[in-house]
Each structure stands twice: as C-alpha cells, then as structure tokens.
C-alpha cells in the first residue's frame, strides 16, 4: 500500500455485498446501544465499587484506597493488553461473534462481582471486566465496515455521544441503586449486558464478509505488535500520536477533577456531581449534534483542528479559573473537544484495509489503556507538588496546564501530519 494514498476499503466498494438500509440501521443502532450500555454499566458501578472494597476491608479506608488503585491499574492493563486481541479476532472471525461474546462475558462478570463473597473474587471480577469491556474497538470497526468514509465522522461522533450519556447517567443511577443496596448496581449492570447480548443474537448481522477477513496472528494481536500497524503510514502514525496525547490529557478529568474542585472551590459532592453531569451532557451534544455540521462546513481536518483549539483553551481556562464561576464557563468550551476524536478516527480508518479495521481500533484502544496507566500518576503527583505547603510553589492549576500543553502539542502535530492527507483524501 502506498504511503501516499489512503486505503478506502469501505462498505461502498462496488463488489461488496450490501446490507439493506433497514437491517444496517438496526445494526448501527444496536452497536450504539451496546456502547451506551457498556459505559452506563461502568458508570453505575463507579460510585459503589470503592464502598464495596472498603466493606471487604473492614472499613479501613487507607487500605481500601490502595487496593482500589490496584483495581484501577489492573483494569486499565486489561484494556491495554486485550483490546488489540479482540480487535484482531474480529478481523479474523467477524465482528458479530466478538461483540456478542463480549456482551455476554461482561454480563456474567458483573453478576460474579455482585455475588463475590470475598475481595479476591471481586478482584477476579474486575480483571475479567477489563478484558470483556475491551469490545469497544470491535464496535468501532463494525461502524467503519458499514459506514462510508464521508459519514464516518458523524457515526464516530454518535459513539462519542454514547460515551457521554453513560458518563452522565451511569454514576447517577449507580448512586441511587447503591443507596438501596451496595451490590444492586452490579446486578442491574449484569442484567442489562445479558439482555443486550440476547437481543443482539437475533438482530445483529455480520458486517465483515468472509472474503474480506484477514488471518489472525499473535504477533499483530499483542499490544506492541498491534502498534506496528500505526507505523504503516506517516499520517496514521501522526494521528495516533494526536489521539494518544488526547487520551493522556483526558486523564486529568478522571484523576484530578474532584480533588481540584474540592481544594480550590470547596465544592460539595452535589456540585461536583452536577458539574461532571454537565461535562457529559456537553460532550454528548458535541458528538451527536455538532460533528456532522462541522464536518460539512469545514471538512474532517479542519474540524479536528478546531476541536483541539477549543480543548486547549478549555483546559487552560480550568487552570486559570480562580472562581468556580469561571470554571463553569470553561466546561462548554472544553467540551467542543468532542469535534476532534470522531474526525481523527474517521481519517485513520481510511489508511487501512477492511480486514485491518479491528486491528486498528484495537491499537487505538491500547493507546487509551496506556494513557490510563500513566496519566493518573502524572496529574495527581503534579497536583500534589503544586499545592504542597512550604514548597514556595503554589499553582493548583498545574494539572490542567499540563493537559492544555498535551492538547496543544497534539494540535501542532495534527496541523503538520494532515497537510498532505487534506490534499489527497
């Protein structure tokens, strides 16, 4: 494959068997529902899992915090290792069996966690959860299979919106259910995943015909091997770096946001939860509503760059905000970052063949897992250093300045690596 010309390999090729509009629409809706339920389930257990760990440790919060950190690291490690494996398996055996098995495995796993009699069983469940929830790359590959290149940004935007919906509703629902019983969110999450798997078994068609499937190789399916694909084009490698820097910057929201809001603005739990809900809502709007008109008006490349500009400004404003009111102003600005992820993904899919879409999405998810492994330490330690008493250095916005720097670097990189693709796509 030439380094100059992107591989199109899409569902529009004339010799491809086409699905009718009805089944294809139902399949895309199922994939969107699957991603939403996956994010919803993860969000539901987020508020209760630390509490359950604490209960197993007899109320010892220090040990619980240490153990929960181990849980989070192992989960991210599972994503890092198994995302490319599942993606490559979907290239070999098709998207349908991988998506359905992941849904089924995730449902059973949540029920195992709900019934866990000891902390060891809960830990095993969390490990399996990290593996089975790595189905997102296959879902993304499915979307790439059935969506023409011109509409992929919009489709990936809907996936991004599904993440946002789960981010908003999951913790709220989990908190409500957890007040009734700590294990109830696990039962509900498991039931939803199992019902979704059963529903998909009846309505989800295969998106990758046998003649377009590739071979499976452990050399390509392991995390390091899967990243080799990202080096096959200069533009693909550059866009991968753009996405990785974005994933890294995003870790400031999951690792430091609550600590920062509590320290600088003295927000209550209610205010923090409301602000996180607004972040999720704005992100969902950006993905579901704004990506399509932005791509139509500016094209994939310029929409990508525009989203990165807004993200840089938003994170910088978070760090600069001396009052909570200014911080609130930064939320819709930062949320326009949602324009960049779907457009970057759309551009990347056009540089690989149909039988490599799963491998590509697996490699991208490995980048997300890698960011999840190193990002929390970067931001939490920088925050601790910035507010340490007696250090002569007091700059609580440091984690957000770092996030703004990461996104700004990705903006410069995107500007450089997409110049040629803008002329050839």
Secondary-structure blueprint of this entry?
Layout: H1 21-45, H2 49-56, H3 61-93, H4 95-115, H5 119-132, H6 136-146, H7 149-180, H8 184-203, H9 218-221, H10 223-226, H11 234-255, H12 257-265, H13 269-320, H14 324-335, H15 340-349, H16 357-387, H17 398-424
Helix pairs in contact: 1-6, 1-7, 1-8, 2-3, 3-4, 3-5, 3-6, 3-16, 4-5, 4-6, 4-8, 6-16, 7-13, 7-15, 11-15, 11-16, 11-17, 13-14, 13-15, 13-17, 16-17
CATH superfamily: MFS general substrate transporter like domains
> What is the CATH topology assignment?
Growth Hormone, Chain: A
N-end to C-end Cα span: 15 Å
What's the pLDDT, averaged over the residues?
Answer: 82
General form = globular
Q: Structural class, from helix and strand content?
A: mainly alpha
The CATH C-level name is Mainly Alpha
Residues in β-strands, percent: under 5%
Count the helices. How many? 17
Q: Which second-level CATH architecture applies? A: Up-down Bundle
- In helices, the fraction of residues equals over 70%
Task: Describe the model.
The protein is mostly helical and 425 residues long. It has one domain: Growth Hormone, Chain: A (Up-down Bundle). The protein is built from 17 helices and no strands. The longest helix has 52 residues, at 269-320. Residues 1-20 have low confidence and may be disordered.
């Amino acid at each position: 494959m030439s380094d100059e010309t992107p591989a199109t390999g899409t569902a529009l090729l004339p010799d491809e068997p086409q699905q009718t509009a009805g089944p294809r629409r139902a399949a895309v809706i199922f994939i969107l529902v699957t991603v939403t339920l996956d994010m919803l389930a993860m969000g539901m257990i987020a508020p209760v899992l630390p509490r359950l760990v604490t209960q197993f440790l007899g109320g010892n919060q220090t040990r619980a915090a240490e153990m929960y950190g181990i849980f989070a690291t192992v989960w991210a490690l599972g994503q890092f290792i198994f995302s490319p494996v599942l993606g490559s398996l979907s290239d070999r055996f098709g998207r349908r069996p991988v998506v359905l098995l992941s849904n089924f495995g995730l449902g059973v796993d949540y029920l195992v966690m709900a019934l866990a009699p000891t902390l060891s069983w809960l830990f095993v469940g969390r490990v399996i959860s990290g593996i089975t929830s790595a189905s997102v790359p296959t879902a993304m590959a499915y979307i790439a299979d059935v969506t023409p290149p011109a509409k992929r940004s919009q489709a990936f935007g809907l996936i991004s919106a599904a993440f946002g919906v789960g981010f908003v509703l999951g913790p709220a629902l989990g908190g409500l259910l957890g007040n009734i019983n700590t294990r109830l969110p696990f039962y509900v999450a498991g039931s939803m995943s199992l019902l979704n798997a059963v529903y998909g078994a009846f309505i989800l068609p295969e998106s990758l015909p046998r003649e377009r499937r590739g071979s499976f190789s452990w050399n390509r399916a392991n995390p390091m091997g899967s990243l080799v694909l990202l080096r096959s084009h200069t533009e693909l490698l550059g866009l991968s770096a753009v996405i990785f820097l974005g994933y890294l910057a995003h870790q400031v929201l999951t690792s430091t946001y609550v600590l920062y809001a509590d320290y600088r603005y003295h927000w209550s739990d209610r205010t923090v939860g409301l602000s996180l809900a607004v972040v999720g809502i704005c992100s969902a709007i950006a993905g579901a509503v704004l990506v399509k008109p932005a791509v139509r008006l500016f094209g994939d490349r310029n929409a990508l760059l525009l989203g990165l500009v807004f993200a840089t400004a938003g994170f910088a404003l978070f760090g600069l905000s001396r009052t909570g009111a200014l911080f609130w102003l930064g939320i819709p600005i930062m949320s326009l970052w949602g324009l960049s992820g779907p457009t970057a993904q759309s551009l990347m899919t056009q540089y690989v063949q149909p039988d490599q879409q799963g491998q590509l999405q697996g490699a991208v998810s490995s980048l997300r897992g890698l960011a999840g492994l190193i990002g929390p330490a970067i931001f939490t330690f920088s925050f601790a250093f910035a507010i340490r008493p007696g250090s002569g250095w007091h700059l609580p916005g440091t984690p957000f300045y770092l996030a703004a720097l990461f996104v700004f670097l990705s903006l410069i990189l995107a500007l450089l690596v997409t110049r040629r693709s803008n002329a050839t796509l």
